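Field reference: "sequence" (input) and "structure" (output). Example, 2-oxoisovalerate dehydrogenase subunit alpha:
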Amino acid sequence: MADAGMLRFHVPEPEVRPGGTPDFSNVTIPKAGSVPRPEIDVDPRTIRDMAFSIIRVLNRAGEAVGPWAGLLSDDELLEGLRHMMTLRSFDARMQMAQRQGKTSFYMQHLGEEAVSCAFRKALAPGDMNFPTYRQAGLLIADGYPMVTMMNQIYSNEADPLKGRQLPIMYSSKEHGFFSISGNLATQYIQAVGWAMASAISNDSKIAAAWIGDGSTAESDFHAALVFASTYKAPVVLNVVNNQWAISTFQGIARGGSGTFAARGLGFGIPSLRVDGNDYLAVHAVAKWAATRARKNLGPTLVEYVTYRVGAHSSSDDPSAYRPKAESDAWPLGDPIVRLKNHLIQRGVWSDERHTQAEAEILETVIAAQREAERHGTLHAGGKPSTRDMFEGVYAEMPPHLRRQRQQAGV
Ligand SMILES: Cc1ncc(C[n+]2csc(CCOP(=O)(O)OP(=O)(O)O)c2C)c(N)n1
Ligand SMILES: [Mg+2]
């Protein structure tokens, strides 16, 4: 008989804390090219093991191998590299702008650039993302102007959201980027609802839901999966597992399920894991999932296995909760370096061209920043008008707001 002594409360702990030696030996990484590519109408029951593997295309030598390779041309890959480099450069400049007091807040994508940049290229015009704050690559890869993003970050007179959103919480209907909510996981139910509406109205557009590993612990995530599964909603359910939720390691939200992808299995949703630092793998899996949605085959859950190299936000200091060198030990490498090496290996890129592109991109980012700053920054120059505060919410302004607007004299 089992010991009937004192009960013990279980709280999962990360392998290593600050001062310790980073150790990812518990992360099983399958060989690139080793995971099969099923037909899109596959019976989900036959691919349950994919929720515990990792789809990878780029191998250590920088070659694209296996059944998920070969979807993108050299030109498309060069464009993808440029998008990721632009996002990284943009992040560095805006992080610095935050330190200079030009904005109150910033969040970087360091190490996660492939996820949103490659995903965007698997969507069609009119499709709608319901993103979190760490998918600005969806906008960059869709050609959304950097100046407009910066105007939002600075809450200046040209901010399309008129200072009413936290910096980096962009919104663009034209670019398929639904307004970000600071309340985590709400975007999951919104995405599924939007996808259901698209199906109900016999439209052709699909939705993409986005969530981080930590936020999957929210009940909205689970409620969204119920509706997505029951009504076969045309939606791609993305989980970006960057190992951390601010200072909380992924084991807390994941619990005993083994992987975040495995959460989808109980709902009968095909659930795949992909190397989130492999541009080609992310794009191939996103395309597979988007095609399923478009062909009325229902939702797909995709877990992107990646690592948050930077701090959670400009208000965070990761040295308090994880070893400093942990990101260097991350076994899936850096997404930009990996795509760069692949393109060099293919003979269409070189170290010199890369360095030159870095300089060109930085110049473009600086030029955009100069233009944005002409419209003001947080503490200097043009601001949205006070009148804007009262507009854009109600079709007809309620009497108490009208009174307040009069009192404010605007
Ligand atoms: C409902 C809700 N709870 C808590 C927070 C505070 N919060 C903001 S970001 C964050 C961590 C989220 O981690 P994860 O989902 O892994 O996304 P990541 O930041 O790693 O991309 C928390 C707890 C919030 N914004 N909303
Ligand atoms: Mg996270």
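The domain at 47-314+321-379 is CATH 3.40.50.970 (Rossmann fold).
Strands lie at 128-130, 207-212, 235-241, 244-245, 248-249, 271-275, 300-305.
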